[in-house]
Amino acid sequence: MKVNTFDSNEALSSSLSERIAELLAQAIEQRGEATLVVSGGRTPKPLFAALNEKDIEWSKVTILLADERWVSPDSDDSNDKLIKTCLLKNKVGAAKYVSLFTGHEQASNAAAALEAKVAALPKFDVVVLGMGNDGHTASLFPCCAQLEAGLTQSNALIATQPTTAPYNRLSLTKQRLLNSHHVFFHITGDEKWSVLQTAMERPDPTKYPISDLIHAGSTPIDVYYSAA
């Protein structure tokens, strides 16, 4: 696993967007299509802005989220809203978007409804994941009863109920996330860096779920980190 360090999230995002665009363009050239999985939250906003300027055949790219908070799509906490307002515009607006929000009352019902569709997607070309201060990634939280299933089951999707974060969630599972040609962890801040180092050095998926992905050894993983 290669760790790339930067002075700012803006510099990181510029470099990572170049790499993502390169990989997507290669996939389009080789297979005529590409898939990109992204994460929500504040951290990737500069990355989304940088991707907006990349001149690739976005109409041949399918984009989906790694996870979704089970809130109204009009909520400021909705990852779906974030993607639609910050990523799916300018050049990227031509991409195909697979939303994880179905309108079902429960995330578990959405998982059942979307399972076949998400499972049938080809091997992802690029997955970009963040990490929380508790070591969670996507919506695979150390505090939720569904963690073991999310790390071990063969399904593409799982509904999770974290006890230390608001909202029920819908998340891609570890197996589906790692069914990818490239995985990038986009990490900012000293506290998260400390957690990531611990997860890299002392695998403990029950405490730091991200460590289970890091040590799976099945998919190339790169870390893009900035202290600011």
TrEMBL record:
GO molecular function per UniProt: 6-phosphogluconolactonase activity
Checking Pfam families in the record gives: Glucosamine_iso (PF01182)
InterPro entries tied to this protein: 6-phosphogluconolactonase_DevB (IPR005900), 6PGL (IPR039104), Glc/Gal-6P_isomerase (IPR006148), NagB/RpiA_transferase-like (IPR037171)
**Under which pathway is this protein filed?**
Carbohydrate degradation; pentose phosphate pathway; D-ribulose 5-phosphate from D-glucose 6-phosphate (oxidative stage): step 2/3
User: Which top-rank group of organisms is this from?
Assistant: Bacteria
Q: Per the UniProt record, which EC number(s) apply here?
A: 3.1.1.31
Q: Which UniProt keywords apply?
A: Hydrolase
Keyword Hydrolase in the entry? The reply is yes
What is this enzyme's catalytic activity, as reactions? Answer: 6-phospho-D-glucono-1,5-lactone + H2O = 6-phospho-D-gluconate + H(+)
**Gene Ontology biological process terms from the UniProt entry:** carbohydrate metabolic process; pentose-phosphate shunt
Is the Hydrolase keyword given for this protein? yes
Q: Where is the Glucosamine/galactosamine-6-phosphate isomerase domain?
A: 8-213
NCBIfam families linked: pgl
Q: Can you tell me which family this protein belongs to? A: Belongs to the glucosamine/galactosamine-6-phosphate isomerase family. 6-phosphogluconolactonase subfamily.
The task this protein performs is described as: Hydrolysis of 6-phosphogluconolactone to 6-phosphogluconate.
Q: Under what name is this protein listed?
A: 6-phosphogluconolactonase
